[in-house]
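REQUEST FORM: STRUCTURE PREDICTION
Request ID: SP-0412
Submitted by: Lab K.M.
Chain count: 1
Length (residues): 282
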Amino acid sequence: MGGDLSGKAVVPVVERGEGCWEAAFAGRRVRAKNDRDLAELEDDIRFNGMYPHRCRSEEVSILATDEQGQEELLEELARTTLERWLSFAKERLAGSGIACYVMPGNDDAWSLDGAFDRAAGNVQNCDRQVVTLPGGYKMLSLSYANPTPWNSPRELSEEELGAEIDRLAEQIPDMRRAIFNLHVPPVASDLDSAPELDEKLRPRYSGGAPVIAAVGSVAVREAIGRYQPLLGLHGHIHESKGVAKIGSTTCINPGSTYNTGRLDGVIVRLGDDVGRIQLTSG
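STATUS: Completed
RESULT:
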């Protein structure tokens, strides 16, 4: 499972007295008049990839002018939510013999990594290392992206990203049984198509339609072309779901529609070659 693991926003659920709560969510104001309504509201917020935060109106006013406080709150809620999910996975996978490898993405704060240490078991953070999968396949994983307009926590220059891939690739003796689990997709692969942004981070338009650009990594494409692993697994560009070939390497981006409460993924059958590929959503 690859990042991004954290949601993008906190939704204040403000106490209005007499057991009543209110939130501005999905373009409307929602009132919860009892515990059942409150639970449904918070579930709806989580379902859409955000974090509900119960608070008083005074706290909302203070946070409105405190960007650092907002970031710290978002990070705290992301960490505690991840810990809850990891505990759930540990419980469900116990005794199953199934290993679950999870990697953060470029938007995820470094503090999230500590959550994995407290949930040791069948769930492992595979970032920045090579792990051995059943069948003797070696999986190389990196959460970094090439530079983005948002200056996210895990970014490297193309040169640095290429060096990190090389460092890990040196640990893999047979590229015919190698998986490159790289969060950022290769540039100009049709797995990295996203709206082009202007200097104010707004989509550019031409003839009334958004201008689409290839925003993936040059270093990733060069590394895949040079090493030719069996399989490339990518994410990062949520709207660019698909399968592509770079030389003999099959590269996949399962996409993401987390904001609709759906989990997109892919099932791949591996032998000496890449067999059946099934993109999933549910």
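NOTES: The mean pLDDT is 94.
Reviewed by: T.R.
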